[in-house]
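User: Hey, my collaborator sent me this sequence without any context and asked if I could get a structure. I don't really work with proteins. Can you help?
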Amino acid sequence: MTKFLDLILGSSEPVLSEASAPDAAAIARLHAASFHRGWGEDEIERLLLDRSILTHRAMIRRKLEGFIMSRIVGGEAEILSVAVHSAQQGQGLARMLLRLHLGRLAGLGVKTVFLEVDESNEPARRLYRRTGFHEVGRRPGYYADSPSGPATALTLRRDLA
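Assistant: No problem. I've predicted the 3D structure and written it out in structure-token form, which is a compact way to encode the shape of the chain:
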């Protein structure tokens, strides 16, 4: 039965690839569902058209289930956002996206990658620790409109070279 569904609906295995402007609406919906302040479709589309932005997506059965987006400047990159649909969380999809993304960044000559993560987001912090990121700074109250009150952002770094 699974093979039959895969033929009709597409494989249940994630397909990872670079995202582009036509993905803006789906990325905006996933971002809005994943974060307190979601980015609008126009905002996402502008980012996707920006040559300094690299975005990868994860599709399952032709549906966007995750993405990762970075800005590249002068041999460094900042991961701007990572999101995985709630039904796919805990399945390794974010790790797959992150590994692909870091590999592509390295291939583009990026030497160092930074990101910020909410101190209370333990699943994300665990993912980043397991993929070689380490804390290099803290920003108390950075997430001012967090549902549980002002939250500290941790600045993490990973060297690729």
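In plain terms: The helical segments are 2-9, 24-34, 41-49, 93-107, 122-130. You can pass these tokens on to your collaborator as they are.
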